[in-house]
Automatic annotation (TrEMBL):
<dbReference type="InterPro" id="IPR014729">
    <property type="entry name" value="Rossmann-like_a/b/a_fold"/>
</dbReference>
<protein>
    <recommendedName>
        <fullName>Phosphoadenosine phosphosulphate reductase domain-containing protein</fullName>
    </recommendedName>
</protein>
<feature type="domain" description="Phosphoadenosine phosphosulphate reductase">
    <location>
        <begin position="205"/>
        <end position="278"/>
    </location>
</feature>
<dbReference type="InterPro" id="IPR002500">
    <property type="entry name" value="PAPS_reduct_dom"/>
</dbReference>
<dbReference type="Pfam" id="PF01507">
    <property type="entry name" value="PAPS_reduct"/>
</dbReference>
<dbReference type="GO" id="GO:0003824">
    <property type="term" value="F:catalytic activity"/>
</dbReference>
Length: 382
């Protein structure tokens, strides 16, 4: 028999919860034979930036799974992966920072037609020399960073044990929509680390993933089943068992098992992972800020810390910005990014971010006076 290990990834959201229910149903119907006679394993990645309500919800699912089948949800972290957020990674970063910050930095900001020439070079239509000869884009020059700022950054560059913050400090910036190292470094790599030993030993891995086609055009382009072969001959199969389901289907299977949903869904959040996600929607940002002031304080402090180890903000004496440029209209002089306080102010405006809307002001007053209203994107409160 081919050795195979099934894994379920648990995020605390409705879709991974639906997959958990499907896997439990399958075991109860067919026994472990349906999983190659090995109990499936359930993994959840904690990157230290999760909403506390989501962590509580995962603990609740873990209890349910334990009582129902005697299985547990394992927590993985970037801290488990050698070289990712450990002392060695920070030592490398300190050495690099001392070397680079003490020198002038020149960077060309390619724009407009020049970007098209670069695409033509990448496509092999012109040579690199032809592209650069036509380039008249501005060159940004950053002078060497003063010694006291270098020393301040070096003092801070030690592991905090919080993977999301440590990754941001190691990268010298927060993730962005284009460079989403939050997903790769604090979620995917730690999850894969748990599976890698099996794959290298020739055990195939089947990942049950809670992705649905109707979530986004990008998701819809994925395949319900994908497979990658490893040098050991083992396969890593990505299986999306609820690919054709609607959000209502995902909620329904949990209801059938008497499982409650992550309470964040009844607080106006459509996503329940990081607190808050770098791609948070305007309305959700407003809700998050109203409901979780302690989380806002934490993010503000992280922006201050990352600002000290980012070359540009260290020199300017400003904090870094958690939220990606594509998420909020930021400051054109700050790479289009906005700090959390500025982004929250913007989230309370309407009409292109210029005016405070009377309704929004009233919503804030109601929240302050009467507690917060139930407000679900999925109609759970109706
Ligand atoms: S939820 Fe958002 S911030 Fe968190 S890892 Fe995913 S993309 Fe990054």
């Amino acid at each position: 028999m081919i050795a195979v290990q099934h894994f379920g990834s648990i995020s605390g959201g409705k879709d991974s919860q639906a997959v958990l229910c499907r896997m439990v149903e399958r075991i109860e119907r067919k026994g472990l034979a349906a999983f190659g006679n090995r109990a499936p394993r359930f993994l959840s990645a904690d990157n230290g930036h999760e909403n506390p309500i989501t962590l509580d919800h995962i603990a609740y699912l873990d209890d349910w799974l334990g009582q129902r089948l005697g299985l547990r949800i394992e927590t993985v972290s970037a801290n488990d992966v050698p070289g990712l957020t450990d002392a060695a990674a920070f030592a490398r970063k300190r050495a690099m920072l001392r070397e680079e910050w003490s020198k002038e930095k020149r960077r060309t900001r390619h724009k407009g037609a020049c970007n098209r020439h670069r695409d033509a070079w990448r496509a092999g239509a012109i040579t690199k020399g032809e592209w650069l000869a036509a380039c008249e884009c501005p060159v940004m020059v950053s002078p060497p960073v003063p010694d006291h700022l270098i020393e301040r950054a070096l003092e801070l560059l030690h592991p905090t044990g919080i993977p999301f913050l440590d990754m941001a400090m190691l990268h010298g910036r927060f993730p962005s929509t284009k460079v989403r190292f939050c997903t790769s470094d604090t979620k995917l790599i730690p999850l894969m680390h748990r599976k890698r030993l099996l794959l290298d030993a020739g055990v195939s891995v089947i990942d049950w993933i809670g992705e649905r086609a109707d979530e986004s055009p990008a998701r819809a382009r994925k395949k319900p089943i994908q497979s990658v072969r490893y040098p050991s001959g083992a396969r890593n199969i990505l299986y999306r068992p609820i690919f054709r389901w609607s959000a209502a289907d995902a909620f329904a299977i949990s209801a059938r098992h008497g499982l409650r949903h992550n309470p964040l869904y009844t607080m106006g959040m459509s996503r329940v992972g990081c607190s808050t996600c770098i791609m948070v929607r305007k309305r959700e940002l407003r809700q998050w800020a109203m409901r979780f002031p302690a989380e806002v304080d934490r993010v503000r402090e992280w922006e201050r810390l990352v600002g000290i180890v980012s070359r540009r903000t260290a020199a300017l004496g400003t904090p870094a910005s958690l939220l990606a440029a594509a998420t909020v209209p930021g400051d054109p002089d700050d790479h289009g990014r906005a700090t959390i306080d500025r982004a929250i102010d913007w989230s309370r405006t309407s009409r292109g971010g210029r005016n405070y809307d009377l309704f929004l002001a009233q919503e804030q007053r109601d929240a302050d006076e009467d507690g917060l209203l139930c407000d679900s994107e999925y109609g759970l409160c109706e």
